[in-house]
Design goal:
- This is DUF4845 domain-containing protein.
- Keywords: Membrane, Transmembrane, Transmembrane helix.
- Helices cover about 75% and strands about 0% of the residues.
- The protein is an all-alpha fold and about 110 residues long.
- The protein has 2 domains: about 30 residues; about 50 residues.
């Protein structure tokens, strides 16, 4: 029984570091590939529906900073997804900050 335990310890010490190194390298390669795929996905152009939404953002006046950002994005020859996602983030941020109150009657003034 003791000899089996010592054999296991010897094999573990001999091959254990190589297996750990291999696993660490494999995880690093997989993470690197995920970052490459994500970067390529962000560099692709937007589809027609997203392009129309950018046009709508450029024509609305309730969120002026988002409108300006959409106009700047429309000046590019092709719109990348990363720019579209930044525009959506800016729209959401601006719409959360703006407080819209109901219209007042003339009598309430």
């Amino acid at each position: 029984m003791l000899s089996l335990f010592s054999k296991h310890q010897v094999l573990k010490s001999r091959f254990g570091t190589k297996v750990d190194q291999f696993c660490n390298i494999l995880v690093a390669v997989i993470l690197f590939l995920i970052f490459i795929v994500a970067y390529n996905a962000l560099q692709r152009p937007v589809n027609i529906m997203q392009y129309q939404q950018v046009i709508q953002f450029s024509q609305q006046a309730s969120h002026p900073r988002t409108q300006h950002m959409a106009i700047v994005i429309l000046r590019h020859s092709s719109i990348r997804r990363v720019d579209y996602l930044k525009l959506l983030n800016a729209y959401q941020f601006e719409s959360n900050r703006i407080k819209q109150y109901p219209a007042m009657k003339q009598e309430d003034e």
